[in-house]
Amino acid sequence: MTQARLFRLSEANKLFLAANDHTDSFNAVKEAKEGKIGVDADEGEEQIVPSVDVVEDGSSVDELGEGALVEDLEGGLEVAEEVKPKGVLKFCQDCGKVSTPQCLIHDTTSLSREDLDRPARVLKAKSMDKKEAQYFFSDTTKQFLTDTITSQGFTHVLCVGCPSIFECLPDNLSSSSLLLDLDPRFLSFYSSNHFLWYNFFNGHFFHGEESSTVFRDFLISCDKLLILLDPPFGAKTELISHSLDRIINQLEMLNISATVSTIWVFPYYMERQLKQHRTDLVMSDYRVTYSDHGQFGAADDTTGLVKQGVRKLGSPVRLFTSIPLSLLELPSSEGYRLCGECRVWVAQENTHCDQCGVCTSKDGRTYVHCKLCARCVKPTYTHCEKCERCKLPTHQCGVGVKAGQENVEDKVKKVEVEENAFSGKRKSRKRNRHKRHKIPKKN
């Protein structure tokens, strides 16, 4: 790496940080929290300015100013309360900051007092961006996770990409918790002691040593820590596990008395890949739902009806955790129950199998036990004697026999197809070989 290239990278980094400077936006939000800047009132409230001016008899209403209301009282007219215009503080969705005079034609959202403490309600998720694919948890999932954190007695919470959970933490936990996220828009709402702009996969703090120091101080102060992470489902499990180990190893190096637990949000069909790298995590039956996801959404809170496009079997997203499942109580109001044999909270469709000795369902359906395979399988599967395993009735026999390996006949056919595909190129080489210019050999 040359000095010129290092200089160009340094300048590009400065320009990148300058373009994502949220200092003015954070100061505006801070002043709004202190009451120096007006914001929208919460639902059911009105912003009013009490008036104490009394007008003597004979004064005209025009002299009171526009928007003033008067009432006939004994001895004169009193100016009634005047409603102030709402939406003084607005957030620009295009710029990702508090709105400025340059944001007149941009998509802006009025901020209420509650929005200042819960920015995930205001920010539009970057679900169309393939680099982030941002989704926020539904109300039921947020309530369950916050209840679990409280019941387990955690003193510190490290939220990696879970801003909707971080903002719902109780006051005694929010002051001792930290949010790490790749989205810089949260810089407008949280100070550096509660939010760090961070890339989880390579452990990079965008604000350099200052953020690294805050993170080290947080790990040193931890007692009973919970690491809650919701990584992109398309990321490699090996990379996520390596990044998680980086944080845990740093905690063990800085704080020998701290204990750590993990909750990893991931789909159930990635269990085999996840268990290859994290043998300490087990899958819970709880179905994680998102408020802004078309397929993994939750039922409407008011009507209880499932939205159009949502999976019929429910969300495939589960919780992989190091917390013992016997201690992880799932909400019975959502259809979960305690298995008497396993002593574990499971979904209503997940029945206990006496032959396997556990509750075997994974995808929301009741599995059936196959005696020939000696395990439980999906109800749509049937046992194939040729393949020696249970498969769909419409499967192609001979493919994926015994642990997903191809049989000898399929391998021979595959080799023949590859040879025929390159046969034309090989013939052309032989045909044109006489046209090539031969270099004479040296004596």
Question: Could you describe the 3D structure shown?
Answer:
By secondary structure, the protein is an alpha+beta fold. It has 3 domains: 1-44 and 81-117, no CATH class; 121-329, 3-Layer(aba) Sandwich (Rossmann fold); 349-399, no CATH class. It contains 12 helices and 22 strands. The chain has helices at 3-19, 23-33, 113-117, 139-151, 163-166, 171-174, 209-221, 237-254, 271-275, 401-404, 408-421, 423-431, and strands at 48-49, 54-55, 70-73, 76-79, 82-83, 90-92, 97-98, 108-110, 156-160, 178-181, 195-199, 204-205, 224-229, 259-267, 282-283, 317-321, 336-338, 345-347, 368-370, 375-377, 382-384, 389-391. The strands form 7 sheets. The protein has an 8-stranded mixed sheet with strand order 12-11-10-9-13-14-16-15. Strand 19 (368-370) and strand 20 (375-377) form a beta hairpin. The two termini are 46 Å apart. Mean pLDDT is 79; it is low at 42-87 and 401-408.
Keywords summarizing the entry:
443 residues; Rossmann fold; 12 helices; alpha+beta; 3-stranded antiparallel sheet; 22 strands; 26% helix; 8-stranded mixed sheet
